[in-house]
Each structure stands twice: as structure tokens, then as C-alpha cells.
Specification:
It is built from no helices and 4 strands. By secondary structure, it is mainly β. Strands 3-2-1-4 form a 4-stranded mixed sheet, with no helix packed on it. It is globular and about 30 Å long.
Length: 60
């Protein structure tokens, strides 16, 4: 898992683990992560983490 929670409590979501990314199920895909299936160091703080990863989020 590559997504993490920062010191201020914000969640950085990797495109490969986002609902709007290539592996997600949201029909309205993100313009930058819509085809990302494997982690390529891209992500954002406004993404929606996939349900299966919500229990694994780690604090950094």
C-alpha cells in the first residue's frame, strides 16, 4: 500500500489505490489517474481511497 496519512491528518491517495484511478469503480475517472493500474509515484490529496485499503492506511 502506497497511500498514507500525513502529520496534519490529510490522506495522500496513490492513483493505483483511488476509486477514480485505473483500478477503481467510479464511472467518473480522474483526468490524470484514469489509466494508472500500478503504482508510478503519482497521487493526490483529493482522491477517494478504495474501500479495501481503508483499514491499512498508515500514519507518516
Amino acid at each position: 500500500m502506497h497511500s498514507f496519512k500525513d502529520k496534519r491528518g490529510g490522506i495522500w491517495v496513490a492513483c493505483s489505490e483511488c476509486e477514480r484511478g485505473g483500478n477503481g469503480s467510479d464511472p467518473d475517472k480522474c483526468s490524470s489517474g484514469w489509466k494508472v493500474k500500478r503504482f508510478n509515484k503519482s497521487g493526490c490529496f483529493s482522491g477517494a481511497l478504495m474501500e479495501k485499503y481503508k483499514t491499512q492506511i498508515k500514519q507518516i
